[in-house]
Design brief:
- The protein is built from ten helices and 13 strands.
- 30% of the residues lie in helices and 16% in strands.
- The protein starts with a strand and ends with a strand.
- The longest helix is centred in the last third of the chain and has 18 residues.
- The protein has 326 residues and is an alpha/beta fold.
- The model has no long low-confidence stretch (mean pLDDT 96).
- The protein folds into two domains: 120 residues, Rossmann fold (3-Layer(aba) Sandwich), CATH 3.40.50; 191 residues, Rossmann fold, CATH 3.40.50.720.
- A seven-stranded parallel β-sheet has the order 8-7-6-9-10-11-12, sandwiched between helices. Strands 2-1-3-4-5-13 form a six-stranded mixed β-sheet, sandwiched between helices.
- α2 crosses α10 and α4 packs across α6.
């Protein structure tokens, strides 16, 4: 089988696939943005394309049987451009890293370890019980509201429950889930979740139903002391409304890992938003790296390799998203 790894994220798994399949399987590393003869030839021969991107601008792929996204999000794929008979799969395995990031974000606001350290290094005992410092909050008993209860949401819930937190979640479909949240609602019950949560975590896919689902009205329903954490996609939260809520301290703060703008070949230093979130002292910003951990690629490409073998053997594929019902 001819396997083509398109782009840097796909190429990160090259060594894993070569070790799994050996020299008998041709594995080519390309970048469709190059659009040179080698890339065009690789796409023409590809039976399996591992790529974050897929649309009609890519070179023709007449032999293609499987597009495997080496990530979870499908927002860079145009499924209408996928050749007839070709299947599309994605992969998860990022929930360990993202859920650890979320717990770190929550603890950042509850414990304030960095702030206490900085004040003490500067010579102040202001946080010490020796001078009757104010008590800090405890995480136990706080409520975390999860917008989305898939792989990421459930991993966060497991860790939050271990800290004694109350877990609230929204899910599109009613089904048995593990762990069971203390409160499980449907998307229409978003206002109730926002009003009751100390920490609101955006962990749902970006699609037409979720784009801008958190806007001015929803942010106004959050508790003034609440913190928003976005580890899903930036545009799920209205960009203008979020900046306004944070700059006016309608909500306490935010931890933002996903954005509204990303670098490209012609603009590697693009700001992540048209608003200066970096000027706000109640915002923690990271460059969409919450799931980028040392075990991620090994887990993801083990699933991709399994699917390549399943395709070869005529068995059902894991995580097939197109055509539906596969």
């Amino acid at each position: 089988m001819n396997i083509v790894l398109n782009g840097p994220v796909a190429q990160a798994g090259a060594a894993i696939l070569r070790e799994r399949f050996g020299p008998a399987t041709e594995i080519m590393e390309v970048d469709h943005r190059a659009a040179d003869d080698r890339t065009i030839s690789a796409f023409a021969a590809a039976e399996i394309l591992v790529s974050v991107d897929f649309d009609a601008s890519l070179p023709p792929t007449p032999q293609l049987r499987l597009v495997h996204v080496p990530a979870t999000g499908l927002d860079a794929l145009d499924l209408a451009a996928v050749p007839d008979g070709c299947r599309v799969c994605n992969v998860f395995e990022h929930e360990i890293g993202i859920s650890e990031y979320v717990m770190a974000a929550i603890l950042h606001h509850v414990v304030d370890l960095a702030g206490k350290s900085a004040r003490f290094k500067a010579g102040s005992w202001v946080d010490s019980p020796r001078v009757l410092a104010p008590f800090r909050p405890e995480l136990a008993g706080k409520a975390v509201g999860l917008i989305g209860y898939g792989h990421i949401g459930r991993a966060i819930a497991s860790r939050a429950k271990a800290f004694g937190m109350r877990v609230m979640a929204l899910a599109r479909t009613r089904r048995e889930v593990d762990p069971r949240p203390d409160w499980l609602g449907e998307p229409a019950q978003l206002p109730a979740l926002l009003a009751a949560s100390d920490f609101v975590v955006v962990a749902c896919p970006l699609n037409e139903a979720t784009r801008g689902v958190i806007g001015p009205a929803e942010l106004a329903k959050m508790r003034p002391e609440a913190v928003l954490i976005n580890v899903a996609r930036g545009p799920i939260v209205d960009e203008d409304a979020l900046y306004q809520a944070l700059s006016t301290r309608t909500i306490r703060g935010a931890v933002l890992d996903t954005w509204y703008r990303y670098p490209g070949p012609g603009d590697p230093d693009v700001p992540p938003s048209r608003h200066p979130f970096h000027d706000l002292d109640n915002v923690v910003m990271t460059p969409h790296c919450s799931g980028w951990t040392e075990g991620l690629m090994e887990r993801r490409f083990a699933v991709i390799a399994d699917n390549i073998e399943r395709l070869r053997d005529g068995r059902a594929l894991l995580n097939q998203v197109h055509p539906p019902g596969g």
